[in-house]
Amino acid sequence: MTTAVREDLDEFDLDVPWALHPQVALRPESFGALLYHFGTRKLSFLKNRTIVAIIESLPDHSDMRSAIAAAGITESQSAPYVTALATLARSNMITRP
C-alpha cells in the first residue's frame, strides 16, 4: 500500500455522517454514474456501481462505515472503497453535513 493510500485511509473519518455535497448532482449511467459539482465545475465518472450505491445510501446511514457495510463490503474488502470515497471527499463531491 502506498503512502498516499495509507494517508487516505487514516484521514478519512468513517465514523461520522457524510452526504453528497449540496452543489453536486449525481446522474446514474449504464457504466455507473456521473457526479457534477456546479460550484467547481468538476466532473467525476464513477465506474463502480457499489460506490454509487454507497453514495446514494448516505442519507440512510449515521456514518460512512455503516453505509459501506450496508453495501455488502466487509472490513477486509473496504480499503479500495475507502480510498475512492476519500478522493471524492477531497474533491468536495461528498462532504460532512
Descriptive tags:
3-stranded antiparallel β-sheet; two-stranded antiparallel sheet; disordered N terminus; 5 strands; 97 residues
Write out the strand line-up for the largest beta sheet, numbering strands in chain order. Answer: 2-3-4
Beta-strand percentage range = 15-25%
Helix content: 25-40%
Largest sheet descriptor: 3 strands, antiparallel
Category from helices, strands and their pairing: alpha+beta
Low-confidence parts = 1-8
Give the overall form.
globular
Cα-based radius of gyration, to the nearest Å: 13 Å
Number of strands: 5
Mean model confidence by pLDDT:
91
What is the chain-wise order of helices and strands?
HEEEEHHHE
Distance between the termini: 30 Å
Number of helices: 4
